[in-house]
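Memo to structure team: turn this sequence into C-alpha coordinates by end of day. - J.P.
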Amino acid sequence: MRDFLTTILRPRSYDGAISIAKGEIMEGIVPLAQSTLVRGALIVPGLIVMGIPTKPAIYGSLIGSANISVGLVIYYMLKGGK
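Reply from structure team:
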Protein backbone atom coordinates (compact mmCIF):
# COMPACT_ATOMS: atom_id res chain seq x y z
CA MET A 1 0.00 0.00 0.00
CA ARG A 2 2.83 2.36 0.87
CA ASP A 3 4.51 1.78 -2.52
CA PHE A 4 1.20 2.39 -4.28
CA LEU A 5 0.69 5.71 -2.47
CA THR A 6 4.29 6.73 -3.07
CA THR A 7 3.89 6.07 -6.79
CA ILE A 8 0.59 7.97 -7.00
CA LEU A 9 1.69 10.96 -4.94
CA ARG A 10 5.20 11.35 -6.40
CA PRO A 11 5.62 14.88 -7.74
CA ARG A 12 5.81 14.80 -11.52
CA SER A 13 4.77 18.25 -12.58
CA TYR A 14 8.02 20.02 -11.69
CA ASP A 15 10.22 17.80 -13.87
CA GLY A 16 7.67 17.89 -16.67
CA ALA A 17 7.33 21.67 -16.48
CA ILE A 18 11.10 22.13 -16.51
CA SER A 19 11.44 19.85 -19.54
CA ILE A 20 8.75 21.75 -21.45
CA ALA A 21 10.31 25.10 -20.47
CA LYS A 22 13.62 23.87 -21.91
CA GLY A 23 11.86 23.01 -25.16
CA GLU A 24 11.80 19.26 -24.49
CA ILE A 25 8.08 19.01 -25.15
CA MET A 26 7.78 15.25 -25.62
CA GLU A 27 9.81 14.49 -22.48
CA GLY A 28 7.74 16.85 -20.37
CA ILE A 29 4.20 16.34 -21.61
CA VAL A 30 3.64 12.85 -20.16
CA PRO A 31 4.69 13.61 -16.55
CA LEU A 32 2.85 16.93 -16.68
CA ALA A 33 -0.33 15.28 -17.97
CA GLN A 34 -0.04 12.52 -15.35
CA SER A 35 0.35 15.02 -12.54
CA THR A 36 -2.57 17.08 -13.85
CA LEU A 37 -4.84 14.03 -13.87
CA VAL A 38 -3.70 12.74 -10.46
CA ARG A 39 -4.07 16.20 -8.89
CA GLY A 40 -7.52 16.54 -10.44
CA ALA A 41 -8.54 13.12 -9.13
CA LEU A 42 -7.41 14.08 -5.63
CA ILE A 43 -9.46 17.30 -5.75
CA VAL A 44 -12.75 15.77 -7.00
CA PRO A 45 -13.84 14.09 -3.72
CA GLY A 46 -13.54 17.35 -1.80
CA LEU A 47 -15.65 19.19 -4.35
CA ILE A 48 -18.30 16.47 -4.26
CA VAL A 49 -18.36 16.53 -0.45
CA MET A 50 -18.97 20.29 -0.67
CA GLY A 51 -22.09 19.61 -2.72
CA ILE A 52 -20.86 20.27 -6.25
CA PRO A 53 -22.46 17.79 -8.69
CA THR A 54 -20.11 15.09 -9.98
CA LYS A 55 -19.71 16.21 -13.60
CA PRO A 56 -18.95 19.88 -12.78
CA ALA A 57 -16.66 18.71 -9.95
CA ILE A 58 -14.65 16.57 -12.37
CA TYR A 59 -14.43 19.32 -14.98
CA GLY A 60 -13.61 21.96 -12.38
CA SER A 61 -10.89 19.88 -10.74
CA LEU A 62 -9.25 19.10 -14.08
CA ILE A 63 -9.42 22.71 -15.26
CA GLY A 64 -8.00 23.97 -11.95
CA SER A 65 -5.28 21.35 -12.02
CA ALA A 66 -4.39 22.20 -15.62
CA ASN A 67 -4.12 25.87 -14.62
CA ILE A 68 -1.58 24.92 -11.95
CA SER A 69 0.42 22.88 -14.48
CA VAL A 70 0.41 25.71 -17.02
CA GLY A 71 1.46 28.11 -14.29
CA LEU A 72 4.45 25.90 -13.49
CA VAL A 73 5.49 25.78 -17.14
CA ILE A 74 5.26 29.58 -17.38
CA TYR A 75 7.23 29.97 -14.15
CA TYR A 76 10.07 27.76 -15.38
CA MET A 77 10.03 29.43 -18.80
CA LEU A 78 10.50 32.78 -17.07
CA LYS A 79 13.34 31.26 -15.03
CA GLY A 80 15.02 30.03 -18.21
CA GLY A 81 14.15 26.36 -17.71
CA LYS A 82 15.93 26.12 -14.33
